[in-house]
Amino acid sequence: MINEGVDTSKRQFLTSALTVVGAVGSGYLTVPFLAQMQPSTKAMASGAPVTVDISKIEPGQLIRVEWRGKPVWVLYRTPAILETLSSLDSQLSDPFSNESQQPVQSKNSTRSIKPEIFVAVGLCTHLGCSPTFRPEIAPHDLGEKWKGGFFCPCHGSWFDLAGRVYQGVPAPSNLEIPPYRYITDTQIIIGDTAAEV
User: Fold this and answer.
1) What is the DSSP letter of 75?
2) Measured distance CA(190)–CA(51) in Å, rounded
3) Cα 143 to chain centroid, rounded
4) Which residue pairs, CB below 8 angstroms and at least 24 apart, start in 132-141?
């Protein structure tokens, strides 16, 4: 026999030792490779939910926050603004928000969870410009039909103070309502996917 006098236990030990060293070495190479495929900390933070304190917003005031690299508006609507909303239905493309551009809890006439607090992504649905907040009634440059809202200077789209698009403008649909929910009476969290339920 050829293998007589050969110590196979040493060969088995060396084979096992090399297998262990190879597995550990593969792990050292694989972990960083897989880790680099994960989104960066900055990218993960940009998609993270944003908490907004609404206690300091005055009636009629709009604040802007950033979520996922987009401007998000939070508007404290006054009773006068809320009264105006229903008078605009005949001038709007989608007055009852039939489109799926808002979470379930915002599918109502005010497009919000609480009527006085309006939250929307501040990008025009035409080509993505950011409309300007124009709360004044019948300004000289917009005419007497203007009851306050958001005007997109890029191509002239009009949105009311519930983010609903007017008829006959370039924007095809209402402003998007992001997922959000109330943490307390004075704090909302924007981008929380639990709010989509």
Assistant:
1) E
2) 6
3) 32
4) 133/62, 133/73, 133/75, 135/60, 135/62, 135/81, 135/161
Of residues 115, 145, 150, the one with CA closest to residue 131: 150
Q: Would you state the torsion angle of the CA atoms of residues 77, 187, 184, 47, taken in this order, to the nearest 10 degrees?
A: 120
CATH class of 48-196: mainly beta
Domain boundaries, the chain: 1-38, 48-196
Place of tokens 């880790």: 35
Q: Tell me, what DSSP letter sits at residue 196?
A: G
CA 91 to chain centre: 27
CA distance 103 to 191: 11
- Each of the 197 residues of the chain gets a pLDDT tens digit; together they read 566 666 777 778 888 888 888 888 887 777 776 666 655 555 555 568 999 999 999 999 999 999 988 999 999 999 999 999 988 989 988 887 766 667 888 888 899 999 999 999 999 998 888 999 999 988 888 888 889 999 999 988 999 999 999 999 999 999 999 999 999 999 999 987 664 44
Read off the pTM.
0.72
